[in-house]
Design brief:
- The protein is of the alpha/beta class and about 270 residues long.
- It is built from 9 helices and 12 strands.
- The strands form 2 sheets. The protein has an 8-stranded mixed β-sheet with strand order 2-3-4-1-5-8-6-7, with helices on both faces.
């Protein structure tokens, strides 16, 4: 079983919920914090009122309060950016540095990398032609949770958050995603929307877990590298070499033996079918 988490303070989240509600037969099971929660097939749907990025340990509260068990969490959310780019994204959560947007300082949350990458592939399939950029985002923000989690988001402003087409694409993605069956890599370098890691995952047989963009690469020490590996269940690391100085690349490469990570050349990977 997996949990889909929504929030009433988030228009995109409610857009996605309404689309799921229109696509499947939801069974109401009771209430959590006075809001009905539901089940269909292998999913529980729980809605909260407060800001999701600051809903620390909400997984433990839900499990303890409702007595239900789930293996992963998918958080249906809005995405906001100053650029206003229309986007459908998936991303892991956690903080490489300070916890300005929830979570804990220098702590990242486990991510079901094969599940998240499967969602990216399905988003790319279903979202083609509606005018949205589809990508991973690098690891960022809270909350801090004990359950493997990823966010799936509509961006970047109110018009997109209320776009029923985008809400339907994400709803269908959540319902129909399949986990990939391939090795996992962590990524370091590139921009926030990780265009190269996204392209690699869409074209090569590799799934990505945690990703540290160029602006956080200097925060990746051995402790953080081990977190990225263990909380992604990763075997490999892929670096965006064009964005990292030679000194920075060498610093990270020197950490790999202790982290038991193998530097991977994505060109060596087989193509997706």
């Amino acid at each position: 079983m997996d949990l889909i988490l929504f929030s009433t303070d988030d228009k995109a989240s409610m857009n996605i919920f309404k689309n799921i509600e229109s696509l499947v037969d939801l069974k109401e099971l009771g209430k959590f914090r006075n809001i009905p929660y539901y089940r269909f097939k292998d999913f529980y749907l729980v809605t909260i009122e407060n800001e999701k990025v600051r809903a620390e340990n909400i997984d433990a509260e839900i499990k303890n309060s409702l007595g239900i068990k789930f293996e992963n969490i998918i958080v249906a959310s809005k995405h906001r950016s100053e650029s206003g780019m229309k986007s459908l994204t998936v991303h892991p959560i956690g903080n490489f540095g300070s916890a300005d947007l929830g979570g804990k300082e220098k702590k990242i949350v486990s991510v079901p990398a094969n599940y998240m990458t499967g969602a990216l592939l399905k988003l790319n399939e279903l979202g083609a032609g509606i005018g949205y950029n589809i990508s991973y985002e690098a690891t960022h923000h809270g909350p801090f949770l004990s359950t493997p989690t990823f966010f799936i988001e509509i961006g970047s402003n109110e018009q997109e958050w209320n776009d029923k087409r985008a809400g339907k694409v994400i709803a269908e993605t959540i319902i129909n995603s399949k986990k990939t069956e391939e090795d996992v890599a962590i990524g370091i370098g590139g921009g926030h929307y990780t265009p190269r890691f996204t392209k690699i995952a869409l074209t090569k047989k590799i799934s990505f877990g945690h990703m540290a963009p160029k602006y956080n690469a200097d925060k990746v020490d051995i402790e953080m590298l081990m977190q990225m590996k263990e909380r992604s269940n990763a075997k490999y690391i892929i670096m965006e070499k064009k964005d990292l100085s030679g000194k920075e690349r060498k610093r990270i490469e020197d950490l790999l033996p202790a982290a038991h990570l193998e530097l991977l050349d994505p060109d060596s990977l087989p193509d997706r079918d």
